[in-house]
Specification:
The complex is a heterodimer of chains A (about 160) and B (about 130). With about 160 residues, chain A is of the alpha+beta class. Chain A folds into 2 domains: about 5-85, no CATH class; about 95-150, bsu07140 like domains (CRO Repressor). Chain A is about 55% helix and about 10% strand. Chain A has 7 helices and 4 strands; from the N terminus they run ααααββααββα. Chain A has helices at about 5-25, 35-50, 55-80, 80-90, 105-110, 115-120, 155-160; strands at about 95, 100, 135-140, 145-150. Chain A has a 4-stranded antiparallel sheet with strand order 2-1-3-4. Chain A is elongated, with a radius of gyration of 23 Å. By secondary structure, chain B is of the alpha+beta class. Chain B has 2 domains: about 1-30; about 30-125, Nuclear Transport Factor 2, Chain: A (Roll). Helices cover about 40% and strands about 25% of the residues of chain B. In chain B, about 30% of the residues are buried. Classes of the chains: A alpha+beta (about 160), B alpha+beta (about 130). Chains A and B meet through helix 1 and helix 3 of A and helix 1 and helix 2 of B.
């Protein structure tokens, strides 16, 4: 196959994907969910067939466009319904409660104690300071949030002013 | 609703570009699969014994019986590597040579809203 045809197909596919991605209002990569990654992989496979002319550009457009449309429709529905949001994305899960790890929650998140230790160390909390944690939650984006026990929080100026 | 319309608009634009290229400028290899890719795909489906999918490449899906496809497959073997190049092409017809292992097949195609394999175009050659 002539090289220029491959180049033109690549350019057409690029601008089409650029247009549908812009139109679908994708925000930042940091907001991407694991399913966004799967959608990207599917589109990557579809574009491969288009580049090597195994399918027509119209078929590529239909396949990639349908996937983006489906993804968009689900996202819009999730945005409007709290129930659907929880069904699709799940809930943040408490993996550490008042200094003690929740083994069932860790198992559901496919984490072991070492992983939790590692994640907390990244937050500057070593094992000895787990007792200062009120809740540690595995968020929907697989980031760990830590809520300290109020007494363990560093004192602020406002607190000092409240003292008798 | 605006994003949904945006995606649909992008798709409609792509379809329009494709239709203009094919119908107005007689594109037969850029926005559509060129004849060599079609012939190669057909031979690959035959080699992997996917008869129904192979028939989708034919101008007339009933023009080749299962027995004929099996006969072609037995000649080609079960490999997956097929290499095709176009011998001749105009707006309505094309001839493609497909090499599979030590064998070369000539595949004739006609344009029918996309390139389609014609059953009469199959002729075996040894190299």
């Amino acid at each position: 196959m002539e090289l220029w045809r491959i180049a033109v197909r690549a350019v057409v596919a690029y601008f089409y994907l650029f247009a549908v991605t812009r139109a679908s209002g994708k925000s930042t990569i940091s907001q991407a969910t694991p399913f966004d990654f799967i959608v990207s992989l599917i589109i990557g496979d579809v574009i491969d067939d288009a580049l090597w002319a195994e399918v027509s550009i119209a078929k590529f457009g239909a396949a990639a466009g349908s996937i983006v449309l489906c993804d968009l429709a689900v996202k819009m529905a999730v945005f409007r319904s709290r129930t659907l949001f929880r069904l699709v994305n799940g809930d943040p899960r408490v993996v550490l409660r008042d200094g003690a790890e929740d083994r069932d929650a860790l198992r559901s998140e496919q984490l072991n104690e070492d992983d939790l230790e590692h994640l907390l160390r990244e937050k500057g909390i070593d094992r000895r300071r787990w007792k200062d944690i009120h809740r540690a939650l595995m968020e929907l984006d697989h980031e760990l949030s830590v809520i300290p026990i109020p007494a363990a929080e560093p004192a602020t100026k406002a607190m000092k002013e409240q003292l008798p | 609703m605006k994003p949904l319309l945006g995606v649909l608009l992008a798709f409609a634009l792509l379809l329009a570009c494709s239709a203009v290229a094919v119908n107005l400028f007689a594109d037969r290899a850029l926005f559509v699969s060129p004849p060599d890719a079609v012939a190669e795909g057909f031979i690959r489906e035959v080699m992997t014994k996917r008869w129904d999918r192979a028939r989708e490449y034919l101008a007339n899906p009933d023009s080749m019986t299962r027995a004929q496809l099996e006969e072609l497959q037995s000649r080609l073997g079960e490999g997956e590597n097929a290499d095709a190049h176009t011998i001749s092409r105009d707006a309505a017809r094309a001839v493609v040579e497909v090499t599979v292992g030590t064998q070369t097949l000539r595949v004739a195609l006609i344009w029918a809203e996309g390139w389609r394999v014609t059953e009469s175009g199959m002729a075996r050659q040894s190299i």
